[in-house]
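Q: What residues go here?
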C-alpha cells in the first residue's frame, strides 16, 4: 500500500487517523489477507523444517479423515476465505500434547494427543471449526497490527520500513507466540465454531464437551495441556456461553447420529 504525502503536510493527519483507529477500533488490521497467506506459508515451511519440535505423522488415511471434516466445515456460507487460504491439515505425532492450532492463512495442525483426547467426531469438528475461525477473523495479523505501534505502522503503510513487518512476524513466530489468543479472540472463535457447525451434520454445541473434559483434566494432565493453555486461555465462562447458545437455538439433545462417536473410534484405529 502506498500513500501520496504531497510533502510533510499529510503525515500529521495520518498519524492522528492511525492513533484514533488503534485506540478506538479493536479489530483494525492494516495487513491484507494476502499477507496472512504469506505468513502462514512461511510458518508452515518453518514447522516442516523442525521435525524435532513438530513431528509430522505421515499417515495419509488419517490425515484425509481430518481433512474431510475441515472441508465440510468450509462449506459453511459464513466462511469468507475458502479458496484463498490453504486450510490444509497436518497431523503431528505427539500423544503427550493435547492441542491444535491454525496459522494465518489457514494451515491447520492437529496433535495426535488431541485426537485421542476427544471422544467423538462432533467434538473434533467443533475444535477444528474454532481454529478455522481464528484464521477467518485474521486474529494473528490483528495482533501484529496492535504490536507494531503507531510510528512503525506509519512507516510500513508509507512503504518506508516494510522490513519491520517481516521482523515482527519472525519474532512472533518463536514458540508460536503469534498464535497466543486473547479472551475476546477466543469468544469470537467459539461463537463462529457454533455457527459454522449449524450447517454441518454435527452437533453445534459439541465444543462444550471439550471444555468440560479440559476442566476435569487440567490438574492431572497439566503438562499435556501446557501448549494448549499457552495459546488458548480457558475461562470457565466459555462453557456457560456455549450452553446459552445451545439454549437460544433450542437445539435438541445430541444423538449418536450427530456426535458420530462410533465412527470416530474406528478412525482412532488408524493412528499408530
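A:
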Amino acid at each position: 500500500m502506498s500513500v501520496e504525502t504531497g510533502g510533510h503536510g499529510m503525515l500529521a493527519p495520518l498519524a492522528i487517523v492511525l492513533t484514533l483507529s488503534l485506540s478506538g477500533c479493536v479489530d483494525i488490521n492494516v495487513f491484507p489477507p494476502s499477507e496472512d497467506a504469506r505468513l502462514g506459508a512461511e510458518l508452515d515451511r518453518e514447522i516442516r523444517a523442525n521435525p524435532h519440535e513438530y513431528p509430522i505423522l505421515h499417515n495419509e488415511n488419517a490425515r484425509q479423515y481430518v481433512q474431510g471434516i475441515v472441508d465440510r466445515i468450509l462449506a459453511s456460507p459464513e466462511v469468507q476465505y475458502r479458496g484463498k487460504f490453504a486450510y490444509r491439515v497436518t497431523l503431528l505425532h505427539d500423544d503427550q500434547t493435547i492441542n491444535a492450532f491454525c496459522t494465518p492463512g489457514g494451515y491447520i495442525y492437529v496433535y495426535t494427543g488431541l485426537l485421542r483426547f476427544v471422544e467423538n467426531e462432533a467434538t473434533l469438528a467443533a475444535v477444528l471449526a474454532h481454529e478455522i475461525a481464528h484464521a477467518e477473523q485474521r486474529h494473528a495479523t490483528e495482533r501484529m497490527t496492535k504490536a507494531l505501534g503507531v510510528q512503525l505502522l506509519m512507516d510500513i503503510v508509507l512503504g518506508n520500513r516494510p522490513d519491520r513487518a517481516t521482523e515482527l512476524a519472525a519474532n512472533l513466530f518463536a514458540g508460536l507466540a503469534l498464535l497466543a489468543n486473547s479472551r475476546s479472540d477466543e469468544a469470537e472463535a467459539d461463537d463462529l465454531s457454533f455457527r459454522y457447525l449449524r450447517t454441518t451434520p454435527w452437533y453445534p454445541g459439541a465444543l462444550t464437551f471439550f471444555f468440560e473434559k479440559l476442566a476435569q483434566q487440567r490438574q492431572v494432565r497439566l503438562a499435556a495441556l501446557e501448549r494448549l493453555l499457552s495459546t488458548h486461555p480457558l475461562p470457565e465462562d466459555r462453557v456457560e456461553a456455549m450452553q446459552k447458545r445451545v439454549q437460544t437455538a433450542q437445539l435438541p439433545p445430541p444423538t449418536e447420529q450427530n456426535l458420530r462417536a462410533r465412527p470416530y473410534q474406528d478412525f482412532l484405529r488408524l493412528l499408530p
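A: Context that may help when evaluating the design: The CA atoms of residues 20 and 251 lie 42 Å apart. Strands lie at 88-92, 100-102, 107-111.
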